[in-house]
Recover the amino acids of this structure.
């Protein structure tokens, strides 16, 4: 009697089990199918460009342009993948083993960090490409709400009580570091004293209610979430906000003096040799210096090093202002990074409360 | 013996007993509870869809035309298709060992199985970076042998497996304990093999609980953000899962697309809740093991 | 092996498969959970106890841990209070749509945290649906510690509801009736008779909500504002430390948080042991 009911239960269970097994099998086949699918796409050459935060729109266009050009010249298909984030965080990912063929970061010290930690980039990477490995430059300008309700004209207005400044965390973001250095350099140039400059940045960062990890996070805080009165930002990022959110909502204020921001590029020798992608990766970096790429930089509001390649109307949009280099004030990049941003540096000192 | 099993969503057979509060008190209580739930649960859900459809149907579907969005969906499905079966097999093995036998150190084992549940997602990602990152313990060895783990599919799968580790096991252990061992012992006495006993006696008894656990495991696997974010590397079209793609779109001022892709995950959550409710309604008694002691 | 008869690891059973299932369980647990966590603790302790203490005492780390702890405690408390109310209403009262509301309670559990994060940020931003109402009142939720609180209440709610719900369903009607017959007011019946047996459930729910809240990342970072010393949570600081190439700092914070997770789990087990002794059930 018991064996009979057991028999029935067994038969029932068998049919159900078969259904379950079939379902599990389907999931596995589906998964395997997807894997092979992604496998076939990786049969063509793939490059990985690990870049900083605000270049998302830029490199989407550059990567497509390069792929087209490469196809036209060699007949080979190349896909350039991009990864974006705070420049420091991106450098750390490369140190941790993400297989970047090229890095296009926001500030030279982040590439130095990779070179030091992994030896995958040679220490003299700056001299390997034209103009100190800078295919374009940029600067820091202010983005304010339409009509400039807080009457912000220059850096001095940013340290006034009651003004809220939105800027990213200099520890993780290159844009954050350029903002910090620009403010410091402005005060140093004006007062001629490092102590005064320290007081100035201390007062400025007292006015900061939100420190996002990347420049893009800060822009979202300011533009989308409506936080703060002024956003010191990459020039290209400020223009992008005007394009994305409308010129009727925000306007750009150009300070009397700002910094020459230098976002460099470099080949990751260790990775391209391991992957066998050196030829394409080198061609990609060279492509950044071609007229075609330079024109794209200008269209995205970066400052191309070959101005003649850019359309005049794009260049005309970029404001004329006095720029200083941080190296002229603080010496070499090892010291700039160490004195300002490493643990116990100037930024740590001023942000203690 | 309830620990986390009490916390994982679990069917409750509600009985409407004689209500003894005054009518006014009752309605005030209901009002406050519903207002609270509206504010904290319903509005966030509605805002996802409202933002997603801000620019109409065309704007909504434009988000899914992009190659990167499709590859993110593909990657998320792949990760879930690997991670969920792994934890399913583990859940079956662990609950068999724990529920059908008495041995020393059992409660410690259960606590360890629960552990990933309360570990921060960020820590869950970090630990695999410490092992498999280039600077990690074994990272350089794996890299030298051409095996990519961090910033590739295996790393994402590992982080997901960790985060969803206890889900199936915790659903099954109380259920199997409730059912005891008499049926299995009967089958064995009648000459069935161990494997056959499992398939024909145990599995039919726990199948709904199993499905329930798999459902929760899957929802969590597809939606994990923090842990995956640490090990992914955020390579467009390659190592971005759906939640990471949402973050990227959000950071690119593409709010409509971000919420559109997010609505996909919200639909998954709603589907999970619906299936879960259906299971509770239909098979409540088969799921409720452990809830009532 | 003669000691086996005196001290047995496992009681004998006719059921097969103990060795293979336990072996697999331990292997899988070891590979996926214990080994990586061990690597974390090893890395963190490599700088010695003084190193760990000085990292934890760093003002910014201490502030982040304090924020994570403090806000999580408050959020878990609020979630417990409202969770009790919601569980009570769902179990004891009947109203239209009750089943639907009951199903919705698990939403925070099923909804991916990143989705919850951007949704809450959109709601509570100064120009959002709720934020625009609060702004004239001078209340800022998004990008302040209040924002973290909102996200953590959201995360903790299902735990607070689901741990007390079965206990409310099991309340014995006779006790309640007896209390009322003996002349106790309704309020006194609730306070004196109904609530005490629910306490273990409430505490378990609180501990679970707290454990989840302390580690929560996805839903918080979109709404927190992430300002050091004010609204920066410990998990975010781990990510920031990583970005600064400070692996040791990251692992030390992670280890401290791991210890908190352990403590929370231990607390839950203690509560349950206590309630088993006192009430005879969990």
């Amino acid at each position: 009697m018991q064996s009979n009911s057991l028999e029935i239960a067994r038969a029932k269970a068998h049919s159900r089990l078969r259904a379950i097994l079939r379902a599990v099998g389907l999931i596995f086949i589906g998964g395997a199918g997807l894997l092979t699918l992604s496998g076939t796409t990786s049969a063509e050459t793939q490059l990985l460009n690990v870049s900083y935060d605000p270049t998302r729109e830029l490199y989407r266009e550059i990567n497509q342009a390069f792929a087209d050009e490469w196809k036209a010249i060699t007949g080979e298909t190349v896909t350039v993948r991009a990864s974006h984030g705070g420049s420091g965080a991106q450098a750390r990912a490369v140190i941790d083993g993400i297989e970047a063929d090229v890095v296009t970061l926001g500030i030279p010290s982040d590439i130095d960090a990779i070179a030091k930690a992994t030896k995958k980039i040679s220490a003299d990477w700056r001299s390997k490409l034209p103009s100190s490995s800078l295919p374009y430059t940029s600067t820091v300008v202010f983005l304010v709400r339409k009509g400039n309700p807080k009457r912000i004209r220059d850096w001095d207005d940013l340290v006034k009580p009651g003004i809220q400044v939105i800027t990213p965390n200099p520890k993780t973001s290159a844009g954050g570091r350029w903002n910090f250095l620009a403010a410091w350099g402005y005060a140093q140039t004006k007062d001629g004293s490092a102590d005064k400059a320290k007081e100035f940045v201390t007062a400025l960062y007292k006015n900061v209610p939100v420190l996002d990890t990347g420049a893009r996070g800060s822009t979202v805080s300011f533009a989308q979430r409506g936080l703060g009165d002024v956003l010191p930002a990459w020039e290209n990022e400020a223009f992008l906000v005007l394009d994305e959110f409308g010129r009727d909502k925000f306007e750009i204020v150009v300070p009397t003096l700002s910094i020459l921001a230098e976002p460099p590029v470099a080949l990751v020798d260790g990775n391209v040799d391991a992957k066998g992608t050196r030829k394409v990766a080198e061609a990609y970096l060279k492509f950044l210096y071609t007229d075609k790429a330079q024109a794209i930089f200008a269209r995205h509001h970066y400052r191309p090093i070959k101005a003649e390649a850019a359309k005049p109307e794009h260049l005309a949009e970029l404001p004329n202002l006095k720029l200083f280099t941080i190296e002229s004030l603080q010496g070499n990049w090892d010291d700039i990074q160490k004195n300002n941003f490493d643990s116990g540096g100037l930024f740590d000192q001023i942000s203690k409360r | 013996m309830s620990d986390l099993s009490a916390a994982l969503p679990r069917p409750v057979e509600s009985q409407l007993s004689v209500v003894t509060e005054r009518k006014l008190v009752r309605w005030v209580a209901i009002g406050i509870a519903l207002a609270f739930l509206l504010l904290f649960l319903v509005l966030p859900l509605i805002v996802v869809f409202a933002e997603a459809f801000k620019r109409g149907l065309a704007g909504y579907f434009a988000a899914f035309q992009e190659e990167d969005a499709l590859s993110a969906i593909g990657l998320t499905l792949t990760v879930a298709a690997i991670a969920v079966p792994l934890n399913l097999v583990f859940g079956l093995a662990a609950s068999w060992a724990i529920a059908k036998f008495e041995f020393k150190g059992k409660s410690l084992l259960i606590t360890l199985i629960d552990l990933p549940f309360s570990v921060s997602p960020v820590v869950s990602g970090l630990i695999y970076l410490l092992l498999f990152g280039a600077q990690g313990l074994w990272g350089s060895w794996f890299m030298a042998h051409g095996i990519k783990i961090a910033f590739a599919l295996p790393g994402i799968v590992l982080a997901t497996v960790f985060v969803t580790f206890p889900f199936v096991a915790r659903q099954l252990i109380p259920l199997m304990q409730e059912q005891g061992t008499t049926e299995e012992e009967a089958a064995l006495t009648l000459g069935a093999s161990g494997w056959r006993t499992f398939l024909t006696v145990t599995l039919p008894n726990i199948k709904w609980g199993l499905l329930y656990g798999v459902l929760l495991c899957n929802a969590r696997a597809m939606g994990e953000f923090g842990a995956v974010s640490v090990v992914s590397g955020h390579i467009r079209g390659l190592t971005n899962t759906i939640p990471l793609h949402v973050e990227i779109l959000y950071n690119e001022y593409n709010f409509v697309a971000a919420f559109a892709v997010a609505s996909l995950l919200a639909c998954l959550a709603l589907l999970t809740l619906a299936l879960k409710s259906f299971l509770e309604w239909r098979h409540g008694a088969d799921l409720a093991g452990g809830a009532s002691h | 092996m003669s000691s086996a008869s005196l001290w047995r690891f496992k009681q004998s059973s006719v059921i097969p498969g103990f060795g293979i299932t336990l072996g697999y369980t331990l292997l899988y647990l070891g590979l996926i959970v214990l080994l990586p966590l061990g690597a974390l603790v090893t890395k963190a302790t490599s700088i010695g106890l003084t190193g760990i203490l000085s990292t934890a005492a760093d003002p910014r780390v201490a502030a982040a841990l304090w924020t994570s702890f403090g806000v999580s405690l408050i959020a878990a408390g609020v979630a417990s209070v409202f969770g009790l109310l919601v569980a009570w209403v769902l179990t004891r009262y009947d109203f239209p749509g009750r089943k639907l509301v009951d199903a919705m309670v698990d939403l925070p559990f099923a909804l991916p945290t990143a989705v919850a994060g951007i949704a809450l940020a959109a709601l509570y931003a100064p120009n959002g649906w709720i934020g625009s109402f609060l702004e004239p009142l001078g209340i800022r939720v998004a990008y302040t510690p209040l924002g973290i609180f909102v996200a953590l209440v959201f995360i903790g709610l299902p735990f607070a509801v689901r741990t007390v719900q079965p206990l409310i369903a099991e309340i014995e009607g006779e006790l309640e009736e007896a209390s009322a017959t003996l002349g106790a007011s309704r309020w006194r019946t609730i306070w004196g008779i109904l609530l005490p047996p629910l306490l273990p459930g409430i505490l378990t729910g609180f501990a679970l909500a707290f454990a989840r809240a302390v580690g929560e990342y996805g839903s918080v970072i979109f709404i927190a504002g992430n300002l050091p010393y004010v609204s920066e949570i410990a998990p975010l600081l781990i990510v920031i430390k990583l970005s600064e190439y400070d692996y040791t700092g990251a692992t030390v914070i992670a280890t401290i948080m791991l210890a908190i997770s352990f403590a929370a789990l231990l607390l839950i087990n203690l509560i349950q042991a206590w309630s088993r002794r006192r009430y005879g059930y969990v």
Chain B has a mean pLDDT of 88.
